[in-house]
Design brief:
Nucleotidyltransferase, domain 5, 368 residues, alpha/beta, five-stranded mixed sheet, 3 domains, Arc Repressor Mutant, subunit A
């Protein structure tokens, strides 16, 4: 597939059906060239012509060119320190199959083999497997021509060539990315971030990470380290972080920190949440501190990249509903010459498989 085909296909995937006239205008090509490109995509089975678009002025109605969602499929894998979550999506990022299982080992070769077994089995059952995406908590970068997972605390990895390890075991291209970056890619093309040229996504749970979109492209940074937001400081004392801080974002905003600050075991998050909802002072204070910490990092992002909107998602977002005033307090204290009321913060629905779906979308984005 050459560049012209990719640009048109990407436009149709992201924005939906368009007329040939509109596609030619958007991509600055002649109608003859656009007709050739669409005919080629139709011959490949990736797009079709269908619904009619009526003009406001007199003239012949235009048929819309649109993607055939089931014409290609993409695998997505999310790794945690203990489990593997897998999905297969079509070209509209609709999940058509899902699966999860415990990791049998955290040894990189063993994980790559387990990924390949799951992905090969699931992709064998769909039409035209296109690519496989894998995401995990950690930094991913290119070094000396080799993509490496530089650091993944949950898996205990450093300088691990996961893409090469998986790529040698599957028959499709492989994309490896940070999990929140993958989540961001999914929301940017198919979720709550559609239409935003500048976007920030926070993923909250066992940790906190951020994904950033600038000028309609996912930004990963020169060294694969974009989105590290956890060590900004606050005027409070909470759980010691891995660097020994007791006053940073990590000390308050993660689910484990909330439990610690509520004087509970890290595994008791549901009970701490219920205690806070019933008004128990220490639990409620833990969520208020988490909410203020979230406001601080959102304010920092607004100051830094001026996004169209901020998405907050993940399994650990309960502080937003429990302590909205604290979110606003942290946000307002951080903003520089920005009206807090102008900051758009949304909480899209979350399922843990969204990470795996984001990995599939990342693979799709790399391919097209």
């Amino acid at each position: 597939m050459y560049d012209g085909q990719r640009r048109v296909l990407r436009d149709l995937i992201v924005h939906g059906g368009r007329s040939r006239v509109e596609l030619a205008r958007r991509h600055d090509v002649s109608r003859a060239s656009l007709s050739r490109i669409t005919r080629e995509l139709i011959d490949l089975g990736l797009v079709a012509e269908g619904a009619v678009q009526h003009s406001a002025t007199r003239g012949r109605p235009s048929e819309l060119v649109h993607v055939r969602p089931g014409a290609a499929h993409f695998g997505g894998i999310k790794l945690t320190g203990t489990d593997l979550y897998a999905v297969v999506t079509d070209l509209s990022a609709t999940v058509v199959a899902s699966h999860d299982e415990p990791l049998r080992s955290t040894d990189p070769d063993a994980v790559a083999e387990q990924i390949a077994i799951v992905a090969n089995r699931m992709l064998a059952e769909v039409e035209l497997p296109g690519a496989l995406g894998v995401c995990l908590a950690g930094d991913v970068r290119e070094r000396d021509g080799v993509q490496l997972v530089e650091r993944s605390n949950f898996l205990g990895w450093s300088s691990t060539p996961l893409r090469a390890l998986v790529g040698g075991r599957v028959p499709v291209p492989v994309t490896v990315s940070n999990d929140v970056v993958a989540l961001t890619a999914g929301h940017h093309w198919f979720g709550a971030g559609v239409g935003a040229e500048t976007l920030v996504v926070y993923g909250l749970g066992a940790g906190i990470g951020a994904g950033i979109v600038v000028e309609d492209e996912v930004h990963v940074g020169a060294h694969g380290r974009s989105g590290h937001v956890g060590h900004s400081r606050m005027d409070a004392v909470g759980r010691p972080c891995e660097l020994g801080h007791v006053d940073c974002i990590h000390s308050f905003v993660t689910m484990g920190a909330i439990c610690f600050n509520a004087d509970s075991d890290e595994r008791d998050y549901p009970e701490v949440l219920e205690s806070a909802r019933s008004g128990e002072p220490r639990a409620l204070r833990a969520f208020e501190l988490a909410a203020e910490a979230l406001g601080v990092v959102v304010g920092t992002a607004v100051n830094t990249v001026d996004p169209d909107k901020v998405l907050v998602t993940g399994e650990g977002v309960d502080m937003v509903g429990l302590a909205p005033a604290a979110v606003q307090r942290g946000l307002t204290a951080q903003l520089e010459h920005v009206d807090p009321a102008s900051v758009v913060i949304e909480l899209p629905p979350f399922s843990f498989s969204d990470y795996a779906r984001g990995a599939a979308v990342s693979a799709m984005r790399d391919l097209v």
